Structure formats: C-alpha cells, structure tokens
Amino acid sequence: MRSRTEPSQGEPSRAAGALARYLPIGVLLLAWELVTRLGWVNPFVFPPVSEILLRWIALIGDGSMFTPLKDTLWRALTGLAGAIAVGVPLGILMGRQRWAEWFFEPLFSFAFPLPKIALIPLFVQWFGLFDLSKVMLIFTDCLFPLVVFSYHGAKGVSPIYVWSAQARGASRWRVLRRVVLPMALASVYDGVLVAVVVALLVAVVTEMVSGGSGLGQTMIRAYRYGDVRTAFATLLTISLIGAALYRVAQALRGRFLSWHVGEA
Amino acid sequence: MTTPRRTWLGPLASVAPLLIVLAAWQLASAAGALPKAVLPALTDVAKALAALIGSGEIFPHTLASLARAGIGLAVAVVVGIALGIAMARMRVVRLAFEPFLLLIYPVPKPALIPLFMIWLGIGDFSKIAVIALGCLLPVVTAAFNGARSVDEVLLWSARARGVSERRLLWRVVLPATLPQIATGVRTALAISIIILVSSEFLSSQEGLGYLISSYGGVGADDSMLAVVIYLAAIGYALDRLYLAALRRFMSWHAFAH
Questions:
Q1: Which domain holds residue B110?
Q2: Contact, B111 vs A204, CB < 8 A?
Q3: Taking CB atoms and an 8 Å cutoff, what residues of chain B touch A201?
C-alpha cells in the first residue's frame, strides 16, 4: 500500500533488500557447486547443485514428479481440512462451555506430548495401508494444535465484550458468531499455521514408513537405489510445497484478519 | 490449564476424564463391543507393559533410543547456543551461516532421513545426525533472538566497569539469553522424539520405534500399544523433568515461577 504512494523510493530499497537476503544463499550454492566440481567430495554421494536442479527439472518435465506430488498434497490437505472442521469448533466449545473444558482439556493435555507418528502401525491396522490411514493420522496430528489454539483463543475473549453484547439482548448464537468467533480468530489462525507444517511433515513420514506412493515414498525409493540426485530433487519439491503452503496460509490470514489489532 | 476451583477435588477432577475414557475402553472390550483385532483390552495392554518391563526386554531398547535422541539433542544444544550467540554478536558468522539455516528451514526434517541413510549408513550415526540437525534450528533461532535482544544498558554498564569481552559473554550475554534458549530447547526436545521414532521406523534393529513397528508387524497389538504408551510416558516425563530443572536452576528468572 505504502509503496504505491511513493514508488520511486519503495522499489529500489525493496530490490536491495531481496538482494541482501538472497545473495548469501547464492554464494552458498556457488560454493557447493565449486566444492563438488573440484572433486573434493564424491559426486555420487554429494552431487553438484546444478545436477540436482537438472534432475529436478527432468523429473518435473517427464511428469514423474507429478503423481507423488499430487498424492502427498491431496493427503496433507484432506487431513488438514478435516482437522480444521473438527478441531476449531471443538476448541471453541472447550473455551466457552465449562463441561466441554472439563472433559476435553485434560485429554488433550495428556495426549499432546505423545508423538502421534508412533501410532502409524495402529492406524495402518485400522484404516489399511493406503490413503485412509495416512489421512487419518494427518487429521489426528493436526487436530492438536488446532484444538489447543482455538481453545485458548475462545477462552481469552474478555467477558466484558460478551456481557455487553448480552446486555444488548444478543442471542447466545449471535454472541458466538459476532463476538467470540471474530476475537478468537487470530489465535485460531496461529493454530492453522502450525497445523499446515504438521500436515506436510506427517504426510511425508507416513509415506516413508508405509509406502503407497507420494513424495515420502519417492525419497525411500531413491534411498534404496542410492540415487542421491533424485533424493535431493524430491527434497526440493517437498520444501517448496511446504514453503508455498505456509505462504498461502499466511496470505489468507492477512486477508481474513486485516481488521485485527495484531495485524499491523 | 488452570482448574476453575482449587479444592482437594482439583487434581482428581482433571484426571477424571481420562479415567472415564479408559473405563469406557475396558468396558467396551469386556462387553465384546470392541473386537480384539481392532483394539486389545486395556487390561491386556497393561499386562503386556508389565511383561515388557518385568522381563527387562524393554530396557535395552529404551537405552538405545534415549542415547540417540540424547546425543543428537546435546550436540544441537551445544552447537546451537554457540552458533546463535556468535551470529548475534559477529556479523561475519551471521553472514556465513544464515544462508545455510535459511536453506534447511523449510525442509520437514524427517524427510532428510533417507538422504542421511545414504551418506552415513543405516546405523546410529545417521539417526543422530538428523536429530541434531532437526533440533539445531529452534535452539539457534532462540539463542540468536535472545542474544540480539540483550539489554544494551547491561552491556554498557559491564563494559564501563572494565569487564573483558570474553567475561561479558559468559556473565552477561549468556545468562540474559538463557530464558529464550530454554524455550527453544523445549521445542527441540519434542522434535527429537518425533525424528527418533520416524528414523527407527525406517531402519533399526533396536529402539522403541523399532519395537513398535515390529510388534505391529506381527500383530501383537497389546505389546505394540504398551510400547506406545511407554514412549508417551517417557516423552511426558522428560518434558516435566526439564521444566522442573528449569524452575530449580533458573529460579532467578520470572518465567520459571
């Protein structure tokens, strides 16, 4: 917004900022390239960065990266969407209703430190080797940050706002929709940002452990063939979609919460 | 987190929901509503856990897992604190290491396991290396942010009294940064267990993750669940122990009330 009013000043400093930020990474990649090209390390074990990029382009180009990418993304997003649909209402209920807080809060507190991926064998047994067990584990793991952040968000809403709405005769439902929900939204969204990261991580781990296509399985197959280039290229894809998902989630946050005090 | 009423019923009230769920689990199993193939009875899981502990079978696996996670975490804490503070205080160090950290930041760390298995084999070394790398980021970030935000007044007043730069680091910067580091290490502790279990699922002959996947593989669900619960208890106990240690050794700081 600000750069539009004074574009002549905004643009160069922004470009300089980007340069200052990405130049060191460029230097690092160049050093990586040089060290491997000079033969200081075994290129089969640690290939030059240019060859990894070429492999990445080749894998994208011939379409062989597409199916695993689609599978991983689909699983992560389905699990995440389910967790948002269940976790946010549950967390808000816990924040507003005594009985729900009494019952669920200790359960989530107890189960929080449990590494949920330890449940992979159990989930495989319950939901099979394929998509469902993976999606269900992603759902379960994402549920925790969403419930906890929504709960704290809803609980932190100052009673003064609730009272004043009630005093004006707002119904329970209306208080929830017009007061509690908007005020809890910032915290809910912090939970979404955590869950986005968790969703991709769990998707990749379940694919590595129980197979069935996806980028995680591509990594494991590359390991079995000792194909470091494909492993690096797949890692690049995973990291890129991780960064992209996070950016999209952040951008949506800015859109939904632009009115919020926390969003300067 | 806070109980609404602080009476003698307080602790009981917070355990009650858990007891209700466990009782419902046991009742459903006993009534035959929950087939053994889906979920073994709670009592069977308890028996399996007692057998695993009684026979001593679980202890070498515990030791193997704790050693991997512990060494990886320790390396990350030592390197992370040193690197984070050095990056905050010396521009050269920051320029040299920041790109590396930015590059590995968006990588879901367990996805590095296959690469490290190619480089370092499927033994302990590759697991420890991924754990160390995964735990490094929260520690470095915490130490860096902490050291950068040390109150300048503290530094000036120490310098004005003729304190050497080295002593300044040990007596002023490090203590002032510790609270932030403590939070970073707690995150790292949780990360270490996640990477540990993932790596032991993928390749291992020993360790709690191996035990879970091998019991799961042969359909010994009661033993598998027993190890899962045992692992959760260890994770929980480590976190509590860490917080208790913080409260004891950092009692001077406000956050450890």
A1: 63-207
A2: yes
A3: 108-111
Subunit contact B221:A98, Cβ cutoff 8 A: no
> Who among B13, B114, B213 is closest to A219 (CB)?
B114
Choose which CATH entry (1.10.10.60, 1.20.120.80, 2.60.40.1930, 1.10.3720.10) describes domain A60-256: 1.10.3720.10
pLDDT in tens, A43-59: 778 888 888 999 999 99
Is B51 within the bounds of a domain? no
Q: Considering only alpha carbons, which residue of chain A is nearest residue B221?
A: A122
The per-residue pLDDT for range A183-211, each reduced to its tens digit, is 888 899 989 999 999 999 999 999 999 88
pLDDT of A228 above 50: yes
Interval A211-228 mean pLDDT: 90
In B, which residues are within 8 Å of A223 by CB distance? Answer: 114-115, 117-118
Task: Give the span between the Cα atoms of B133 and A258, in whole angstroms.
Answer: 36
For A41, name the nearest residue in chain B, comparing CA atoms only.
B119
A128 to chain B: nearest residue by CA?
B38
What residues contact B95, with CB distance under 8 A and at least 6 apart? A24
B17 lies in a domain? no
Which chain B residues are Cβ-neighbours of A103 within 8 angstroms?
17, 20
Handedness of CA B24, B26, B28, B30 (dihedral sign): negative
The answer, for A100 touching chain B at a CB cutoff of 8 Å, is no
The whole-chain average pLDDT of chain B stands at 87
Question: Domain residues of chain A, as ranges?
Answer: 2-41, 60-256
The count of domains in chain B is: 1
Asked if the ipTM is above 0.85, the reply is no
